[in-house]
Design goal:
about 240 residues, 22 strands, mainly beta, globular, single chain, Jelly Rolls, 2 domains, 7-stranded antiparallel β-sheet
Length: about 240
């Protein structure tokens, strides 16, 4: 087993007034040659957008872009004709393919919106752009990992053009839980959203990230309290 640990306080940080963003990997003005990606996971941004503000219309190509709202309402518009609002409990995925333009804005003028922005390199380039959005079961099943992204249209979650799976898990300790990898050549990036947990002997706190590869399963230990975890399983080479 190999690992790479990214403590929360070591992430890149950008404060633009309207946007407060933490970067697990190199992004925009944050450049760290040791944090360019984890396998095909290219971006994991932890964003907070001020009331009524947002990202203006901008282009993307050949990237799988996933948004996970954590708090508030995020309005999405794109050149495919989609105008939607995503909220906590929704998952959004956009395959940029041959090219798409979109904007993301805080729908509300009285409170912030918080969300995760994830970019994954695709295994097919120049595909027709597509948009997908789902609302998860409410409340999420506790004490299990719940699939939210998959490459397979028949699976739970939104579909992307990559052999990658994303899972959310909410746990109330004490307990132990295992996550078997879909493919033993893959790696998993673990991102703790709430609480703290142990992973194969490594203790992770809120907003810590841990990349693990060259293993076929992860072993989690939840000691006390409420814990929320995001798992991103990806190929280590595209």
């Amino acid at each position: 087993m190999k690992t790479v640990l990214h403590k929360a306080q070591t992430r890149g940080h950008a404060e633009h007034g309207w946007l407060n963003s933490y970067h697990s990997f190199s992004f925009a003005n944050y450049y760290n040659p040791e944090r360019m990606h984890f396998g095909v996971l290219r971006v994991l941004n932890d964003d907070e957008v001020a009331p009524g503000m947002g990202f203006g219309t901008h282009p993307h190509r050949n990237m799988e872009i996933i948004s996970i709202p954590l708090e508030g309402d995020l309005e999405h518009k794109d050149s495919m004709g989609n105008t939607t609002v995503i909220r906590q409990g929704d998952i959004q995925a956009m395959s940029a393919g041959t090219g798409v333009e979109h904007s993301e804005k805080n729908k509300n003028r009285d409170r912030k919106v918080k969300f995760l922005q994830i970019w994954i390199l695709p295994n097919k380039v120049n595909v027709a752009p597509k948009y997908d959005q789902i609302t998860l079961e409410t409340p999420l099943p506790h004490n299990t990992f719940y699939q939210i992204v998959s490459p397979n249209p028949e699976d739970d979650g939104v579909r992307i053009h990559q052999n990658a799976w994303l899972h959310l898990g909410e746990f109330d300790g004490p307990q132990a839980i295992d996550y078997p990898l879909k493919d033993k050549t893959h790696g998993v990036y673990i991102f703790v959203l709430e609480g703290h947990c142990g992973v194969d002997g490594q203790t992770l706190q809120k907003r810590d990230g841990l990349g693990v590869w060259e293993t076929d399963a992860l072993h989690f230990k939840i000691d006390t309290g409420h814990v929320k975890i995001l798992l991103i399983e990806v190929p280590m080479a595209n």
